[in-house]
Fold this protein.
Amino acid sequence: DADQRERRIDTALAELGDDVVILGHNYQRREIVEHADFIGDSYQLSTEAANSDAEYVIFGGVTFMAESADIITDDDQQVILPSMEASCPMAGMAEALQVDSAWAKLTAATDDDVIPICYMNSYADLKAFCAEHGGLVCTSSNAADAFEWALERGEKILFLPDKHLGTNTAYDLGLEDDTLVWDPWADDTEPEAIRANDIILWEGYCQVHERFRAEHVEELREDHPDAKVIVHPECRREVVEAADRVGSTADITQAVENADPGETWAIGTEIHLANHLDRWHPEVEVVPLCGDACMDCNAMRQIDPNYLLWVLEELVEGREQNVINVDPATADRAATALDRMLEL
Ligand code: 13P
Ligand code: SF4
C-alpha cells in the first residue's frame, strides 16, 4: 500500500544518501514532488542537476528533460528516468529525421538564410540539428530573445515544434503578419508562402495546453471577477489574449508566490502545478482555469511513485535501471545549441 511504499522509498533514500538527488518538474504528481530535492521548470532542473555532486540524478519529468540533464551534467553522473514511457508527445511531433527532409524542402523554396530554433521541448538530436544549421534552443521565457538573435543572423526563422509558442512570440515582437504555420507535407502553395513569410512555424502543439479555450477564461471571470488569469505560452493565441499574463511554469509559480494574501489567481497550465500552488500557498486563492475539465499531462503521469521506488531499490542493490544516455556526438552538438541560448 501507499504507506508501505513511502517507508520503502525513505529507507532506500537513507541508504543512498548523497549519492542521489531527486528532481521534480512542476507538473509531477504530489507523491513525486514530495520526495524531490528540487522542484522547478525544465531548464531550472537541468541546472540543478549540473550543480549537484550526486552520482545519480533521478529525474521526475519527461524524456527530453532527462536528456537535457544528461547533456549538462558531468560524465560521471547518471541521469535516471523512472519510466521510459514518459515521452512528451509534442517533442515527438518534430523528429530530427522528418525535420531534415523538411529542411531540404524549405531551403530549396527560398534564397534567404533560415535559422532554426527549437524549443526546449524537443529531443537531443533536434537540438543538435539546430546547432549544425546555425541555430539555437530556447525556453518559453526567452523565445523572443532567441527570435531576435536569429533575425540578426538570417532573414527567416524555422521554429519548432510548438506553433502556439511560436505564434505568441511572433505577436510579442509584432511579427504576426509575417508568420506561416507550415505543414511540410501539404501539397498547396508552400514555396510562395515560404517566400512571403519570415517566421515559419512547425505544425506542432501541446495537447494539454491546446485544450484551453477563450471561453474558459470568460467563464472563470464570471465566477471570479477579481481573479488574475495567468496562462502558459503553449496555449492558443486567443487564450493568451484573454488572459492577464503569460509565462513559463517558473513564472506562474512566481506570480502566486508574489501575490498578496487574499488575491485570486487562475492558472492556465497542467493541473498538477495548479494543485501544488493551491497547497503551497493557502493565503492565495488558486483556481485551475478549466474548472472540472482535466488538463492532465499523460506523459508526466507515467512517473508513478512505484517506479520511483523501483529505481531507488535497484540502485541500493547496485543495479542502474533506465539510465538516459545521449550519444556523445549528439550531446556535444546539442550542448552548442544550449550554450547559444545561455549567451542570449
Ligand atoms: P516549462 O519549461 O515551463 O517547465 O514547461 C515545460 C512543459 O512541458 C510545458 O508544457
Ligand atoms: Fe509535453 Fe504538453 Fe506534457 Fe508539457 S504538458 S510535457 S508540452 S505534453
